[in-house]
Amino acid sequence: MSERDLVLIGGGHCHALLIRRLAMKPLPGVRVTLISEHSETPYSGMLPGLIAGHYDADNIHIDLNRLCRWAGVRFIRGRVNGLDADAKRIQIENQPDVSYDKVSIDTGSTPDLSVPGARDFVVGVKPVSRFYARWKRLLKNAGQPGHWGVVGAGAGGIELILAMAHRLGPDRSITLHLIHHGAAILPGAPKTVRRQVEAALQRHGIVVHRQFRVHKVTATSLVGNDDQTLALDQMLWCTSAAAPDWPAQSGLALADNGFIAVNPQLQSTSHPDVFAAGDVAELIDDPRPKAGVYAVREAPFLYDNLKRAFASRSLQPIRLQNRFLSLISLGDKTAVGHRGPWVIHGAWVWRWKDRIDRAFMDRFQALGAPSAMMQNDGADTPHCAGCGSKLAPTILADTLDQLPRHNRPGFSPALGRAEDAASWQATPGHLQVQSIDGFRAFSDDLYRFGHVGVLHALSDLHAMGAQPIAAQVWVTLAYQHPRLQKRDYDRLMSGIADALYAEDVVLAGGHSTEGPENQLALVAQGEVAPERLWSKQGGQPGDVLVLTKALGTGVILAADMAAAAPANAMEAAWASMTHSNQEAAAALRALRPSAVTDVTGFGLLGHLLEMLGDDVGAQLESTALPALEGSLALFEAGWQSSLVPHLMPYLNHCQFDAAVPTASRSLLLDPQTSGGLLIALNPTDWPVLQAALPGSVCIGQLTERAQQPTAVVASANQPL
């Protein structure tokens, strides 16, 4: 049982290596959590190759969610904007605080944008995600004449502008400018290296502006010494590193340059429970340049000292080399390198650098089997959480059909009609609508899990046209030390409360227990006028079928359990699951839908079959089925929810054209967590709904059952 919390802020190189080491050698009794603003972190050494076109984005990014899943480390996606070092609390933007026993900070640095106008008009090379997005937009307009400048002629700026020149090509219409405040580029490098770089700059036709110290930035120019002006259409900033803003308000001791002051043990000089590494840290007794090589070297020392700190043992000082090999890419696949006075140059140097960089990334991309920290109980196939943890529909039907039922006048139980919620007449002119839903936790980020759990439960009411008014919750928390359990309860309940508040729903009460794993269930209650109550059944032949959310959360969450879901797929799943069906229900109230349900654990096909009467069938267009990013690739790789085998009998009611891809068939059975609404609608109302809900998709239509051999026919025709 874990008793203490180690929280890692930032997914820098040092922390990525630390997580790998923690996977192999966990700290006894310590629960580890990573907080990062982004799900992926770039390897800065390969950024020039990405800009030059030598690498794809996937080649240079570490998938932090996958790494954490593999290592058994909790992952919270959020932007840290403060730290109370005395209270041991981390502040996250738009989320509750996270408490810690010990914390390590590796958030990196950003270019210094303190020059007036820089924050408004330049693009910093960090964060890389923002810079790369801007670079891709620039490439689309690269055919137009213009002037682009890179400010900063250190190794980073030189590699960047040479990579840009290579990507744009020798016949480019863009003039590239390198701006440097000093007389010589690459200060501190051997003359031989500077000559090689100067030759590369000249070869690529780059205009170098020396002794141009930028004092001001405008929308169209850089203003330097004596008000000299350099007109530019795009300005990229690759200057010396600056510290993030929030440590200055944290109570931590800082170095003169604003970075976190640490001793030789990588420990804060003011707060012994705080550690820092990488660019954000400043070794007070032995300052070093802000270089990735030092962050990599710090990882084993950080692991050892964290282990010692939790065991109340004395810490060991870090030992860093005084010289290191510096390799500089020259745009094309050549490079120059030096260590002290020793200099190397040529295509073979770039190939050597490429092998070093790829070997580093392989440590995070070829993860192999999950670590001992996340092994399951020995079952051949782990059982899914979320709505993939539902019981099989045959088990439900066989048991519920045999139960004795007590009927009351005016009460319409969900059991008898397979509706999304039960309803009854409570006051004249209003029906009370009630539903219950819940599942095992599919994520260690309990704040977001609580948010999703609320939206999933309220969706049953939205699917019946009801306005949710109150909810009660049942929370089960995994066995933990009471201190950790309290921290988990705070985050989970904050996620629940924030989601209910956004939906204007009262948290009326609840119950809590502890058990082997985290779980959440909600009883949701709402009301609706009887004439506005929607039903699953009632669709008519000729109605169009509309789906308000893309499919694929089931397969994505299944792959995520085995650390196999890529970051883009997880981002898409979270975005879908945290989007409420409230908006779709509100748009529908202006119309008269024939039938409505929400797509959850039984997949699109299972819930569609519930909508069909004896005389009504459905024609689906497989090309119209919306799929979350990355989900089809996971199907093709063999992933599926553990509930899918129990949903296979639904296929007996479906006929497929030969052209329908296997992945599209799998999509029909994929269990959805916080899925969208499935709507049967008069075709004349579809343009109105589409205008109100641009993300909704028409996936087919209802038909006469007698005119087709099965309840559902899936074709590969063009979308309606």
Explain what the structure shows:
- The chain has 720 residues and is an alpha/beta fold.
- It has 4 domains: 4-108 and 245-323 and 331-365, FAD/NAD(P)-binding domain (3-Layer(bba) Sandwich), CATH 3.50.50.60; 118-242, 3-Layer(bba) Sandwich (FAD/NAD(P)-binding domain), CATH 3.50.50.60; 407-533, PurM-like, N-terminal domain (60s Ribosomal Protein L30, Chain: A), CATH 3.30.1330; 536-720, PurM-like C-terminal domain (Phosphoribosyl-aminoimidazole Synthetase, Chain A, domain 2).
- 31% of the residues lie in helices and 25% in strands.
- The chain is built from 22 helices and 38 strands.
- Strands 33-36-32-37-34-38-35 form a 7-stranded mixed sheet, sandwiched between helices. The protein has a 6-stranded mixed sheet with strand order 26-27-28-31-29-30. Strands 5-2-1-9-21 form a 5-stranded parallel sheet, with helices on one face.
- Strand 16 (221-223) and strand 17 (229-231) form a beta hairpin.
- Helix 1 packs across helix 9 and helix 13 packs parallel to helix 14 (482-502).
- The protein is globular and about 85 Å long.
- Residues 372-379 have low confidence and may be disordered.
User: Given this structure, which CATH class of the largest domain is correct?
Assistant: Alpha Beta
Q: So what's the overall shape? A: globular
Mean pLDDT: 90
Q: Report on the biggest sheet.
A: 7 strands, mixed
Low-pLDDT ranges? 372-379
Portion of residues in helices? 25-40%
**Strand ordering within the main sheet:** 33-36-32-37-34-38-35
Structural class: alpha/beta
Q: Span between N and C termini?
A: 55 Å
Report the count of strand segments: 38
**What oligomeric state do these chains adopt?**
single chain
- Give the radius of gyration: 29 Å
Q: How much β-strand is present in the residues?
A: 25-35%
CATH superfamily of the largest domain: FAD/NAD(P)-binding domain
The CATH level-2 architecture of the largest domain is identified as 3-Layer(bba) Sandwich
Number of helices: 22
Number of domains: 4
What fold name stands as the CATH topology of the largest domain? FAD/NAD(P)-binding domain
